[in-house]
Design goal:
about 95% helix; about 40 residues; mainly alpha
């Protein structure tokens, strides 16, 4: 039973990591645009 809980926690952690990576990817995409507007 605890094994299932561990798997669920790992899955949630992976989802969080993917979400963070997606945000970083979007941020890196938006950043040059904002830098271009500043100059």
């Amino acid at each position: 039973m605890t094994k299932i809980k561990e798997l669920i926690q790992d899955f949630k952690l992976n989802q969080e990591i993917l979400g963070v990576r997606e945000k970083v990817r979007r941020f890196m995409h938006v950043l040059p645009v904002q830098m271009g507007e500043l100059h």
